[in-house]
Design brief:
112 residues; 3 helices; extended; 3 strands; alpha/beta
Length: 112
């Protein structure tokens, strides 16, 4: 069986528990005979690779011709999302009050 995993963290870059958890999952799946490909946004090249494929998104070729790409882009609806979600909490510099000021349309007030 083949498994495709997507993540933003993998050893040796560890910012929290996600990298360690992903590495453990990959090793466990490989141990049980599965073929694992793990895709990162950017692969540096110094990550440990033994028994599985590790790719950076930049290594994946998408066979679009310019015409296919234009057709695809026209069929996609894009939504902007202002969110607190992010892999690293220290990157959040906006307080809740500042958030309400900068993106008031994103904050719903309670009814009444």
């Amino acid at each position: 069986m083949k498994v495709l995993m997507l993540g933003w963290e993998f050893p040796p870059r560890i910012a929290g528990g996600l990298a360690v958890a992903c590495y453990g999952l990959v090793k466990g799946l490989v141990h049980h005979g599965l073929q694992v490909t793990f895709v990162l946004p950017l692969r540096k090249g110094d990550e440990p690779v033994q028994g599985y494929r590790l790719l950076g998104a930049q290594e994946i070729e998408v066979p679009f011709t310019p015409a296919h790409k234009e057709t695809w882009l026209q069929s996609v609806t894009w939504y902007g999302l202002h969110t607190w979600l992010g892999p690293y909490l220290e990157q959040i510099t906006t307080s809740p009050l500042e958030f309400r000021t900068v993106w008031p349309e994103e904050v719903e007030s309670p009814p009444g």
